Amino acid sequence: MTEKFSWFSISSAAKYLGIHFTTLRRWSDEGLIEYVRTPGGKRKYHKSALDEFINQHKTKTKESMELATLQEAAILKTRETMQNAKISEQDWYNKLSTEQRTGMRGTGNRLVALMLQYSAREDNNEVFLQQAKQISKQYGEICHSMGLSITECIQIFLLFRQPMLNSMHETGSLQSSNDRVNQRIFEKMNLFLDEFLVTMVDEYNNTST
Fold first, then answer.
1. What is the pTM of this model?
2. Which of 52, 118, 145, 190 could form a disulfide with 128 if both were Cys (CB 3.0 to 4.6 A apart)?
3. Structural domains of the chain in order of their starting residue, each with its CATH number
4. pLDDT tens-digit profile of 96-118?
């Protein structure tokens, strides 16, 4: 391969690694994969850097990439479902500032990823639930600051809950051929969301006192 063709765009590099380009962007920002920027500001990845990443992570690469791909697919599917539900036409949504909307979109994506991580792991998964609880506290505070009732706060959560669960089914996150394993994963997803809801309500009530 000549030097000219040794450089990949972010989309080509992601395809080479077998992941979504947003995953590659995140890993790059975290310093896991070396890249350069062109004068126009675009990211470029050298084949040697991609191969080095694969070699360094070869014991975990396949599993981590599959999980990352599922995360991105689930996030995109949830976003698509919420757009079809015309969330922007909801009264509560119009009370949000532009900054709050952007923040909730980002934390919503993070929540989907955390739920998948928590549900997919047998051990050491409590850290993902704790991170989700921090997000739920933010949601409780936002609902209170918007003047929403606790009932409205719960209704908003339920509006997001089912699309999140559906995204796991539709993107193949429940892909085991073992029905018992699938049932266990689904139960963990529900537990994750139950804990999120309880923490959000607690934070709302604490803010009210």
1. 0.61
2. 118
3. 3-56 (1.10.1660.10), 61-208 (1.10.490)
4. 788 877 777 777 778 887 888 78
